[in-house]
Design a protein that fits this description.
Pfam family, one: DUF4403
Protein name: DUF4403 family protein
Low-confidence stretches: 1-27
Strand content: 35-45%
Mean pLDDT: 79
Structural class: alpha+beta
Oligomer: single chain
Helix content: 10-25%
Keywords: Signal
Shape: rod-shaped
Largest sheet: 11 strands, mixed
Number of strands: 31
């Protein structure tokens, strides 16, 4: 996005030099007067789908829950009072994990066996032999039970994850009735299992609250809080104003949610950080949406433009009426009246310096950048003496004006793969950015004596993949 104006200016010069032998075309009508002030910068919105691979985390969470639960003192009886005692063993299955709109549900099945016995007490002492019964021992199959564990997720403003985990349902498929005393001991077993599950839930909550996201967030926050180098094309500052998170859902061993970011991005050729922020804005509310819609103001000094144009056009050869010339360097400077001057040094059959000047104009509706008043600067007298009137032909000049038109949409299409590459890279260890762009538009252009200002809008889709949790 930030290098569009560079390509526009570079192609403008290239087209002007290479089109001298092109056929005559009808001149386009003059565009509207150039915008002197960029449009007000709107707030940009990014909706980033985030995928968190949590299979290792789930394995760790399941390892915290014992496969087998037993009564106190197993295999001995646990006496709850003078006249009753029991013992049980519960074996669970693997976890079945789901998450819909921030509500996590863990389902598991299991089997249990229980034995209980009663007696008669007097003055707190057994006075009758223990008489018992059992379920699931010997040749008798163990009884079945289904368990549901629920946990509600909540992100705090400081990017911590908070959970509240508890047993939602412990349901006996097969109840155990000790018939001798007509005592149904199933509920006592279920209550004990539920207590163990709730204790496990608290350990999960403690583990989740201890997860440290700073390893991922801090590098992102520091990059977003200051200017980011963009190769030779300047520096960008995101200027994030708000961050929101959508509901968390789970599928295919992956947690999925959408992060919404509001920002006012700026691009410049100046690397100085006049202000630096080291933290992301606090999380506020929820979000929903798709893709990103970025509008950024860019400001480039002419020295930066000179460097890129020279790098782009140096050693390029053109033929003008049989005269071969090769570009040595290109310099651009701003003039009064929103004009620019191109100073092109060349060598070849002839040597010299060519001066072109004009007023770049942007047609935002057609997405066309042109210089309808492009003229030779008659100060190029030394060139005139060397090449005669060839370069100063009005016919050629009119052709230059027609050819010196840049279709921004076509330019974007040609360079789309290069732009998209910026949306497919590793942000930090374990965090990858994936995405592509869908369209680029220029929404404003101001030519000043000291700099060129551009406002550009870029649309597309991007997402983050977190491959491991610290």
């Amino acid at each position: 996005m930030n290098n569009r104006i560079y390509f526009v200016l570079a192609f403008l010069v290239a087209c002007s030099l290479s089109s001298c032998s092109a056929s005559k075309k009808k001149a386009s009508p003059s565009a509207a007067a150039p915008v002197r002030v960029l449009p007000t910068l709107p707030e940009s919105e990014l909706y980033l789908p985030v995928k968190v691979v949590i299979k290792p985390f789930l394995k760790h969470a399941e390892s915290l829950a014992p496969r087998e639960l037993t009564s106190t003192g197993w295999p001995e009886y646990f006496q709850t009072g003078c006249d009753f005692r029991y013992k049980y063993r519960f074996i669970r299955s693997a976890f079945q994990f789901t998450c819909v709109n921030n509500r996590v549900q863990v389902n598991m099945s299991g089997v249990y066996q229980i034995a209980g016995s009663k007696t008669v007490c007097a003055m707190g002492q057994p006075v009758y032999p223990w008489v018992g019964g059992s379920c699931g021992f010997g040749n008798e199959p163990m009884r079945k039970v289904n368990i549901t564990l629920r946990s509600d997720l909540q992100f705090t403003p400081d990017y911590r994850l908070r959970t509240v985990t508890r047993a939602e349902k412990v349901q006996a498929v097969d109840r155990c009735l000790v018939t001798l005393f007509k005592t149904d001991v199933t509920q006592q077993v279920l209550d004990s299992i539920a207590a163990s599950i709730n204790a496990f839930g608290k350990s999960v909550d403690a583990m989740v609250s201890g997860i440290n996201f700073d390893n991922y967030l801090q590098p992102i926050a520091e990059k977003a809080g200051k200017k980011i180098p963009l190769s030779t094309y300047g520096y960008m500052k995101l200027n994030a104003s708000a961050v929101r998170l959508g509901a968390v859902n789970y599928s295919g061993d992956t947690l999925r949610f959408t992060a919404g970011v509001s920002c006012y991005p700026e691009v410049s050729s100046d690397s100085i950080n006049y202000s630096v922020t080291r933290h992301l804005p606090p999380l506020t509310g929820t979000t929903s949406g798709n893709g990103f819609n970025l509008t950024a103001n860019a400001k480039y000094d002419y020295t930066t433009i000179d460097t890129l144009l020279t790098k782009t056009l140096r050693n390029r050869e053109f033929e003008v009426k049989g005269e071969k010339i090769r570009i040595v360097s290109v310099n651009v400077r701003g003039l009064d009246g929103y004009k620019v001057e191109f100073r092109i040094q060349f060598t070849g059959t002839k040597r010299g310096t060519l001066f072109l000047k004009g007023t770049p104009e942007l047609d935002t509706a057609l997405q066309v950048l042109s210089v309808p008043d492009l003229e030779y600067d008659l100060n190029s007298s030394s060139l005139a003496l060397q090449l005669g009137k060839t370069f100063f032909s009005r016919k050629i000049l009119e052709n230059l004006r027609n050819q010196a038109r840049i279709n921004v949409t076509e330019l974007y299409t040609k360079n789309k793969s290069r732009i998209d590459s910026q949306f497919n890279r590793i942000i930090t260890d374990g965090v990858t950015l994936q995405g592509s762009t869908q369209g680029l538009k220029l929404t404003g252009l101001v030519i000043n004596r000291d700099n060129v200002q551009v406002q550009a809008n870029l649309k597309g889709n991007a997402g983050l993949v977190i491959s491991n949790i610290p």
